[in-house]
Request: fold
Amino acid sequence: MEQRVYLDHAATTPLDERVLAAMLPHLEGRRGNPSSLHASGAAAREAIEEARESVAALIGASAGEVFFTSGGTEADNLALLGLAGAVEDSGKRHIVVSQIEHAAVRETARHLESSGWEVFWLAVDADGLVDLDELAVALRPDTAFAAVMWANNEVGTVQPMQELAETCAERGVPLHADAVQAAGRAPIDVERISVATLALSGHKLYGPQGAGALYVRGGVSLDSVVFGGGQEKGLRSGTENVAGIVGLGAAARRAREKLDERVRRETGLRDRIIAGATALPGVSLNGHPERRLSNSVHLTVEGVEAESLVLFLDALGYEVGSGSACASAGHKASPVLLAMGQGEHEAFSAVRISVGKDNTVQEIDSFLEAFSTATTQLRELSPLTKI
Ligand code: PLP
Reply:
């Protein structure tokens, strides 16, 4: 098979072979339902609790604060709907949500809005950072919660979470952090940064797709949104995805052990791409220049339509993303770029290149050559502005 270079780790990461090895015994000849009393049930339960410890350790939580879900989307939904449901009777009907959230948060907030909740959509600056002063003003006595993502899935900007959490804590407002992109790529310590809830997902950290977790700080009340057999202390009913949870645990353990090494390596590759790509005419970096994820590069390529560029690069053997994987499927201009003040036209010329732990310098250098060829050729063909 032709050699392909995968540079779309923000969309999903390859399953680590050690993670697969940890999962296999729970797929081959699987028997026990974790709720069963017999030995096979107990073994499945034990495997889940071991994974819970590993996920907790990755974010500085205690195991009792980690609840498994079917992924980041469900964790975000559970946090928002659960926090809202828990205080609805007290008359709180106001929430504060950043304008650059992933659809898993944004659409849940919109759902609350359509059910009568008042949503304050927190603006960001041109680099994608929220304004702490605006947050402070937006929080009210009837605010049920605020939601600001740890790191953005498109442009890679990392928010000042400590200051955001402190501002919310001073007003007694729980803060939800979507850390799906940050977990395993940036240090997270919920003991130091007092978010109320935090979402993470297995497939962004070399674990399986369809397995995620929600951290819920001890003492924070959350209503359940899935009803049934009362698994996960009644917060998330349904027979557990044992192999997925074990995989998530193994991935979290590995991510914790390797965090510094991965960040160092990825930062070097990321900066090589940024330097090489922005040296080309009409190519500029989106997102904060320093406060950004170690693996993410988001570029506007003037005069080139992003999807054509992605397909051109794909034909050359390089896999990158256009905008975000989710926004690109809908063919809408990215709300993140629009919130950052870009026009629709620019938003359609944005590509996301996200490196991973196994990419090499050689791959990056050959990618940069392909990127240069692709942008030149597409501009020659394009009726759009010539650079
Ligand atoms: N939140 C962010 C920031 C993401 O990047 C993603 C996935 O792209 C999600 C939530 C959804 O996670 P999942 O794919 O596990 O449902």
Observations:
- The two ends are 36 Å apart (CA to CA).
